[in-house]
Amino acid sequence: KSATAVAYCKRGRGLLRVNGRPLEMVEPRVLQYKLQEPILLLGK
């Protein structure tokens, strides 16, 4: 199996969502860290 998630960046409240779900609901946990990498690199 393989799946692709699409991310959009826009002005807002700074909430991260994946396929309409909050980042905290993404499993496994290691994916949450992977998804946060670009934000951490930008220092935001």
TrEMBL record:
A Pfam family the protein falls into: Ribosomal_S9
Q: Which InterPro entries match?
A: Ribosomal_Su5_D2-typ_SF (IPR020568), Ribosomal_uS9 (IPR000754), Ribsml_uS5_D2-typ_fold_subgr (IPR014721)
Annotated Gene Ontology cellular components are: ribonucleoprotein complex; ribosome
A GO molecular-function descriptor: structural constituent of ribosome
Q: Does the keyword Ribosomal protein apply?
A: yes
Q: Does the keyword Hydrolase apply?
A: no
Instruction: Enumerate the UniProt keywords alphabetically.
Output: Ribonucleoprotein, Ribosomal protein
Which BP terms does GO give this entry? translation
Q: What is this protein called?
A: 40S ribosomal protein S16
- Its source organism is Bracon brevicornis
